[in-house]
Automatic annotation (TrEMBL):
It holds the Pfam family MIP. This is Small and basic intrinsic protein 1A. The chain crosses the membrane at residues 12-34, 40-62, 135-155, 162-180, 209-230. It is found in: Membrane. Belongs to the MIP/aquaporin (TC 1.A.8) family. SIP (TC 1.A.8.10) subfamily. The lineage of its organism: Eukaryota, Viridiplantae, Streptophyta, Embryophyta, Tracheophyta. It is a multi-pass membrane protein. It comes from Hibiscus trionum. Its main location: membrane.
Amino acid sequence: MGVIKSAMADALLTSMWIFTMPFLRIFTLHISAFLGVQTIPLAAVLITTILVSLMVTIFTLIGNALGGASFNPTASLAFYAAGLKKDMSFLSMAVRFPAQAAGGVVGVKAIMRFLPRELKETVKGPSLKVDLQTGFLAEGLLTFGLCLALLVILIRGPKNPLVKLLLMASTTVGCVGTGAKYTGPSLNPANAFGWAYVNNWHNSWGFYYVYWLGPLTGATLAAWVFRFLLSPSPTSTKDKKV
């Protein structure tokens, strides 16, 4: 029963996250125009980073209120493979990942249903701009870098929560910007599935190869690198407590 409740919470949080994602671009454009800095690329990056930080804070609080819900399968897998999620198992992920994918579909359908037409025309999901192998490598490497950075920042990073948040947000924005010319990017299989379902591409092997196998492989490798090379040793942890 606990797994079912967790899966339902994941589906809800994922749908909410994906529905709010288009507003990042909308708010960035409006804030840049208001400040008169729309022609300065660095200003747009800074504004986006601040907005991502705010979104992550809000959704972290909501996720905690829902009992530890997650909106990204790669994050769940990375923390599990790194040994940081003792309450998770392959069985729970086998239930929660499809629930997150279903939440992705609900989130994208909500975007198509409720956003004004002029805004929907500016909203696009992940799209493959390269061949399958390059797309797989792009999603895998970017997810590897993102997950490894998040693990290091959260576990071994600065103690100041605001600094942690800004570092995570800037890393996310950097990875998304880097992958834009390859796969969109997604770095979140649930998000990719939602858009693929709406665009009738969810039944293609190429889609799962690029947007599921790539990110999940990258997340697993990042977790193993962190666990065996970068994770604080039990001895050092005990020393800090003394």
